[in-house]
Amino acid sequence: MSALATTTIQDSKVLHVCDLNAWYGESHVLHGVDFNVSRGEVVTLLGRNGAGKSTTLKAIVGLLRTRKGSVLIEGTETMNLPSRRVAGLGIGYVPEDRGIYATLTVQENLMLPPQVRPDGFSLEQIFNLFPNLKARLTSYGDRLSGGEQQMLAMARVLRTGAKFLLLDEPTEGLAPVIVEQIGNMLQQLKRQGYSMLLVEQNFEFAQSLADRHYIVDQGRVVDAFTAASADREQAKIRRYLGV
Ligand SMILES: Nc1ncnc2c1ncn2[C@@H]1O[C@H](COP(=O)(O)OP(=O)(O)OP(=O)(O)O)[C@@H](O)[C@H]1O
Ligand SMILES: [Mg+2]
């Protein structure tokens, strides 16, 4: 057996995070985060400002190097893998700031990242899902609306062939009509079998897509419940989110 085979566990989980700790310099921010995402599931991380939601995503994809614990993606331990190998496992991260290059056009932004897997979206598939982007192909990144930037950022990770998306507040600052469009696109991807880990402050939006929710507080997962039981958990959700 190869060394890799010994660290690969076959199960239905696309993500298994266990006792994840992370630091910014001296500042210990994640204190043993535990949760998982099954294949085809949409799971959210909810929590107040500063709870550690974005840090959890960054630590999963290896943008935060000072970390400890275990992150299994598709059954493969990724803590010591180079980031290119992690991308090759089919994970795609859309950061909170969307990471669009201001001085490149929509087309250039789309073509920049490599298609790390052969089954990445073609430009035609991207334009079917995001017709707005086709109309804006030659526009520069800094001329796009917030909604167009969000769609471009999502399109870019779909081009890589990622089937498991980490989305950090995709609806932040967007008008309700755009939020609805993004919700419809994510529903389509969910129907196609994509798995998602979604960080959201907009609980209504999260609830419309999610199968399960986790609550993050002070760098830990402190509670979990299914979307089906969310009605009964309203008081708890409000208390944790401070709304
Ligand atoms: N680059 C950084 N350097 C130092 N500390 C940071 C940095 N980014 C975040 N933090 C701190 O880490 C903690 C968790 O932040 P994080 O961004 O993960 O929270 P969040 O749950 O995503 O919040 P928000 O809802 O505001 O986006 C906070 O105390 C924050 O101040
Ligand atoms: Mg955040």
Automatic annotation (TrEMBL):
GO molecular function ontology, one term from the record: ATP binding
Q: Which residues form a coiled coil?
A: none
Tell me where on the tree of life, at the top rank, the source sits: Bacteria
Q: What Pfam families does UniProt report for this protein, alphabetically?
A: ABC_tran
Tell me where in this chain the ABC transporter domain is found: 15-243
Q: Print the keywords alphabetically.
A: Amino-acid transport, ATP-binding, Cell membrane, Membrane, Nucleotide-binding, Transport
SUPFAM superfamilies documented for this protein: P-loop containing nucleoside triphosphate hydrolases
**Family note:** Belongs to the ABC transporter superfamily.
The record's PANTHER family line, in alphabetical order, gives: HIGH-AFFINITY BRANCHED-CHAIN AMINO ACID TRANSPORT ATP-BINDING PROTEIN LIVF (PTHR43820:SF4)
- Please identify the protein, giving its name as recorded: Branched-chain amino acid transport system ATP-binding protein
Task: Tell me which species this is from.
Answer: Ottowia thiooxydans
